[in-house]
Write a structure and sequence with these properties.
Elements (H helix, E strand, L loop, with lengths): L1 H26 L9 E7 L2 E3 L10 E3 L2 E8 L6 E3 L6 E4 L3 E5 L5 E4 L5 E2 L5 E2 L5 E2 L14 E3 L4 E4 L2 E5 L2 E3 L7 E2 L4 E3 L8 E2 L5 E4 L1 E3 L5 H36 L1
Antiparallel strand pairs: 1-4, 2-3, 5-20, 6-19, 7-8, 7-11, 7-15, 8-17, 9-10, 12-13, 13-14, 15-18, 16-17
Length: 246
């Protein structure tokens, strides 16, 4: 009985993890460049059944656990904004940025603007790397960004938005604000293929599938409730057994 309770508790914890992931996806359904989380499940260790199983060779599972599979980096829909500093990445890859703490990072969020220091920065304050700086008097309407990332201001080239990719994007580490840093498992950032381009005046939407996310949430909730009911039933049976002993 106690083993069954432990197994059920592990299952509830796994479903709670999935609910948290789906809730995060739904909360970011309108976040520029957001990539939905991937959650899977794996079984825990098996133990020899012993009593009350019919055979000493029988094995009893100890539950399941949730496994994070990183994120799904499939392309999101492009949304035209008309803003000159907005860029959407078409194809695999990321914009190179430098975070406020000095770390090099990657992002799919192309919602860029000029900050008070005249630098081109992201919506979360990361500086496009290498740094692109504009002279005084240059307005956003004076800026054009080519498909290869070349940035022009009043007809003069001022820099280039560099795109990078990694061997295994699913293993990038999220640091919040739509930014990621490389890990040993993701591999180092390298140049993107020539097929990856930027589209000026557009942003990439979230790739969260609302219908699928709602289905996953309902499924996880029902499984959580069923497991919770099993624990309640087991608790009632133990109370009855204790009453018989007395």
């Amino acid at each position: 009985m106690l083993e069954g309770l432990r197994t059920a508790a592990a299952g509830m914890k796994a479903q709670q993890f999935k609910l948290d992931a789906v809730s995060n996806d739904l909360a970011n359904a309108n976040t520029t460049g957001y990539k939905r989380l991937r959650v899977g499940f794996s079984d825990l260790l098996y133990e020899q059944g012993g009593r009350p199983t019919i055979s000493n060779e029988a094995q009893v599972g100890t539950g399941s656990r949730a496994v994070s599979g990183g994120r799904t980096f499939e392309q999101g829909n492009l949304q035209q904004t008309g803003k000159p500093t907005d860029v959407a990445i078409q194809g695999p890859g990321f914009i190179r940025v430098k975070l406020a703490d000095g770390r090099d990072a990657l992002t799919r969020d192309g919602n860029l603007h000029i900050d008070s220091d005249r630098k081109l920065v992201t919506s979360f304050g990361g500086t496009v790397s290498p740094e692109i700086k504009f002279a005084e008097g240059v307005a956003e309407s004076d800026i054009s960004i080519g498909r290869d990332g070349t940035v022009m201001a009043k007809g003069q080239a001022v820099g280039r938005i560099q795109l990078a990719n990694v061997r295994s994007p699913q293993n990038l580490e999220s640091v919040g604000d739509n930014a990621f840093i490389t890990t040993a498992r993701s591999g180092n950032a390298v140049a993107t293929p020539a097929t990856t381009v930027l589209e000026q005046g557009a942003l990439e939407g979230s790739n969260t599938d609302m219908a699928q996310a709602m289905t996953d949430m309902i499924e996880a909730q029902r499984t959580y409730q069923l497991t919770s009911k099993a624990i309640q039933t087991a608790d009632q049976m133990m109370e009855i057994a204790n009453g018989v002993k007395r």
